Amino acid sequence: MRNGRLGPVPGGRTLLVVLASLGASCGDSRPGTPDLAVRDAWVRPATLPETPEGPPINSAAYLVVENRGGASDRLLAVEFSGASMAELHESFVDSSGVARMRRVEAVDVPAGEDVRLEPGGLHVMLMGLRAPLVEGDSVDLVLRFEDSGERTVRAAVRPL
Amino acid sequence: MRSRSWMTMAVALVLLAIAGGFLLGRAQAGGAGTLHGSLIDPPLAATDFVLASGDGPVALSDFRGKVTVLFFGYTFCPDVCPYMLQRLRAARDLLGPAGQDVQVVFISVDPERDSPARTTAYARGFDPSFVGLSGSTPEVAAVASSFGIFYARAEPDRVAPDDAGEFYLVDHSATVLVLDRDGAIRLMWPGEASAEEMAGDLAWLLAN
Fold first, then answer.
1. By CB neighbour count within 10 A (0-12 exposed, 13-18 middle, 19+ buried), where does A128 fall?
2. What is the ipTM of this complex?
3. CB contact under 8 A, B79 and A120
4. Taking 60 as the threshold, does the pLDDT of residue A77 lie above it?
5. How far apart, in Å, do the first and last CA atoms of chain B sit?
6. Is the predicted pLDDT of residue A22 greater than 60, yes or no?
7. Residue A95 sits at the chain B interface (C-beta within 8 Å)
8. Average model confidence (pLDDT) for chain A?
9. Contact assignment for A91 to B175 by CB distance below 8 Å
10. For the whole model, what pTM was predicted?
11. N or C: which end of chain A has fewer CB within 10 A?
12. A49, B83: Cβ pair inside 8 Å?
């Protein structure tokens, strides 16, 4: 254990300094609180130009939540004013090859981890769109977390 | 120097083994052994059908001569169907000019909401070459059943109770079927297949 990173003394002091600077790099997070950042938010375009029936009523939003803090948080809901309903859902393929979706009450965001909402998995299902979602535009999503409260993020309208 | 000649021999053997493995790998590249989907061997004759597009009736046999990709879904599908259709478009693009011999056909398993015009417009929204088909409820049921595709309206508890009536979801087989130029089923892809995997399989099927 001569080079063991957790070896006793002489390295002990260095370790403390490293830990302290790691703490500082986590922004203003205090131990025991989540420190969230939401990034890479996007929404799938939804237009149906060639029929008189209007846009498809559904789309989905995807994003990444980073938690650099020392405590977990939970994503409880995502709101989007452009749809009559936005819900957290998870797509999965069951053992017989059938694609299914289930509603998710909340998404856990563990301390120190990234949670990815991406196609084919966790996503925000947007139903009853009030207007087409056109590639190149962007929309605002409001994320509601159990501890961190509300966060508004801008999501690009783009294909995969 | 006995040990030295032994070493030389050992090194030569190792090199030979590596070269052999390399050649074997090359022989297999482009062969059925590198396929990502499940090969249907012998090929299974597909039952011909006629469904409706926004431009009129379309028969499966219209696509003889092309490699035809059948995917069942619905236009109100928020996540899984658009994700697969985008990957199919990417797979076709990856093939370059050869992709013109690949025909993607999207068949609605939600004919109550998906009119032929809506389904066709939806499929073209992913790629102008894609064909989107729907039909009457019994017509769609017969086609899906003949390809072993399951679908059913999802249990209402999957969405918030207040909205369940208006916004229902449809569970459906995620499997994608690939037919060869003669119209026989040759490959099946699971719903998770990537664009690169599908493009590789299509390149093989176009060449065989």
1. middle
2. 0.73
3. yes
4. yes
5. 54
6. no
7. no
8. 82
9. no
10. 0.79
11. N
12. no
Q: In angstroms, rounded to a whole number, what is the distance separating the alpha carbons of residues A87 and A75?
A: 11
- Please check whether residue A93 touches B, CB under 8 A: yes
Residues in chain B, overall count: 208
Token pair recorded at residue B22? 């390399």
Is B80 in CB contact (< 8 Å) with chain A?
A: yes
- Which residues, other chains included, contact B175 with Cβ-Cβ below 8 Å and sequence gap of 6+? A97, B148, B149, B188, B189, B190, B191
What is the fold, at CATH topology level, of the domain defined by A29-157?
A: Immunoglobulin-like (2.60.40)
pLDDT value of position A3: 42
What pLDDT is stored for residue B47 in this prediction? 95
pLDDT at B30: 52
Which residues of chain B carry a pLDDT beneath 70?
Answer: 1-33, 156-166
> In the structure encoding, which two tokens stand for residue B170, read together?
């449809």
Q: Which residue of B has its CA nearest to A118?
A: B79
Each domain of chain A, given as residue ranges in start order, spans: 29-157
Cβ proximity of A69 and A35 under 8 Å: yes
Instruction: Check B80 against A160: CB less than 8 A apart.
Output: no
Token code pair at residue A14:
């260095």
